[in-house]
Automatic annotation (TrEMBL):
<dbReference type="GO" id="GO:0016042">
    <property type="term" value="P:lipid catabolic process"/>
</dbReference>
<dbReference type="Pfam" id="PF01734">
    <property type="entry name" value="Patatin"/>
</dbReference>
<feature type="short sequence motif" description="DGA/G">
    <location>
        <begin position="181"/>
        <end position="183"/>
    </location>
</feature>
<dbReference type="InterPro" id="IPR016035">
    <property type="entry name" value="Acyl_Trfase/lysoPLipase"/>
</dbReference>
<feature type="active site" description="Proton acceptor">
    <location>
        <position position="181"/>
    </location>
</feature>
<protein>
    <submittedName>
        <fullName>Patatin-like phospholipase family protein</fullName>
    </submittedName>
</protein>
<keyword id="KW-0442">Lipid degradation</keyword>
<feature type="active site" description="Nucleophile">
    <location>
        <position position="43"/>
    </location>
</feature>
<dbReference type="InterPro" id="IPR002641">
    <property type="entry name" value="PNPLA_dom"/>
</dbReference>
<keyword id="KW-0378">Hydrolase</keyword>
<feature type="short sequence motif" description="GXSXG">
    <location>
        <begin position="41"/>
        <end position="45"/>
    </location>
</feature>
<dbReference type="GO" id="GO:0047372">
    <property type="term" value="F:monoacylglycerol lipase activity"/>
</dbReference>
<keyword id="KW-0443">Lipid metabolism</keyword>
<dbReference type="GO" id="GO:0004620">
    <property type="term" value="F:phospholipase activity"/>
</dbReference>
<comment type="similarity">
    <text>Belongs to the patatin family.</text>
</comment>
<feature type="domain" description="PNPLA">
    <location>
        <begin position="5"/>
        <end position="194"/>
    </location>
</feature>
<feature type="short sequence motif" description="GXGXXG">
    <location>
        <begin position="9"/>
        <end position="14"/>
    </location>
</feature>
Amino acid sequence: MKKILSIDGGGIRGIIPALILARIEELTGEPVADLFDLIIGTSTGGLLALGLSIRDTTGKPQYSAKQLGELYETRGRDIFQRSLWDGITAGVLDNVYEADGLEQVLQDYFKDAKFKDLPPQPKVAVTTYDIRLRSPLFLKSWHANHHDIRLREAARATSAAPTYFDPLRLKVRDVDSVLVDGGVFINNPSVSGYAEALKEFGRQEDFFMLSLGTGELTRTIAYDQVAGKGKIAWLLPLLSCMFDGVADAADYQMRQILPETAYFRLQASLGKRDDPLCANDDMDDATNFNIRSLKEIAAKLIWEREGELGKICDALLA
């Protein structure tokens, strides 16, 4: 049986799948990278996919899922930082954030490691979109034309959410590409992960998939928020609808493809403002209060789905 891990995009909300994976490592006693044959991620999920797969000089995974969860807690404000003036003009005159903070964090975690430095297993892919060529692009650890791409470059590309960060200019296959967050076309990359598994491992294989969300969006968008307001008012609500809608569609498709014993989707509700437990669904809310709320939501999901987690771990260790 070939095992696939798919991780959604969602910015700072990536702490939720990180904590779920930390629990899986705790239950199995094995690093995530040794439990799966293929890991695919979008945006923050792509960062996790790469972080879980990079190895140290001894060949062991360099970061545990718990350590990557701490990244959001300790470095979230480094990634999403701006000056007072930037906050006033953001979304009107420029992007919300300069990329310096994000790029420094990626430099600290990935140094100059390249795709060719990753081991053959698990195969790792991250999603991005080339706005110059108007084409989706999957950066893959096993693709010869991608071997010299640095992991920090791949993480930067898949995390370049429009209006939040500038695109990344990167030469891929000797072609100058302009790359943005893969969430613009596939925020939940599970179906693509399954397609890659079919191609790489063959249709004769049995497949098991774990798909991890970063929190179900529950904030409503009222008519008067967008009606007659023009492009700027529409942009961020539209992005959130795109990210959420494609994630739900991919979940539905995977439930038709794989039996319920071979496909598990773990997704938490972020709650509503009047709920006892709720978190902000903004991708960039790295405040202490929101981080704490996201951790509590992850803990609640883990507690409620402990039975399923046991089945997942049994399948991963089989």
